Amino acid sequence: MKSPVAQHVIGVFAKEPRPGEVKTRLAQQTSPSSAAEVAHACLADTLERLAVVPARRIVVYAPPSARDSFASLAADRFELRPQGDGDLGQRMAAFFQEHLTQEGARVIVVGADSPTMPVEFVAQAFELLETDDVVLGPATDGGYYLLGCARRVPPIFSGITWGGAEVLAQTIERLSDPAWRVALLPPWYDVDTLNDWHMLCGHVQAMRRAGVEPRTPAVERLVVSKLP
Question: Measured between alpha carbons, how far is 109 from 149 in angstroms, rounded to an integer?
């Protein structure tokens, strides 16, 4: 019999942090290079924190040509898979379809925009998927920072305004059938704008002052350098 942990899969969806290609809202408020540095720090710290999760860990990256860049960040702690074609919903749907084929699989997807997300949320999500079909981690910007599925792929990957403030609401609309068992994690925040960055800076500084290890060394280096 396979260990339950062997049936746990976590995919980190991430774009290569190139100036002008990532965190475009932050880039408009600061500069493309500063936004790319923030994206790189968030990605590095997200991978560092999630590397301890007892699961099959996969970085699902874009563009396909960025494999070498992600290989250095993953450092053999994560498998590497290109995201493939289509919009975000199509790419996530393909990931879930691939990994839910294994009996008893519990599959979770996160982004790299929430570097302070407690790792305990991931463990909680895997636990909830023992009985629930879908687990959502609501983001304070109206989207979600974590999505988990078990047993079957839900109808939540088309007709969504990806990147908009109604992603979570639209997702819930598509889960109105009571046959879908849905669970929620505590809300958390993404880092997409300058205000979000200020929130992150204040949060890691507050954790440090309160004697809590933030476990975000790359972000803290930017905080110290006053970037952006």
Answer: 9
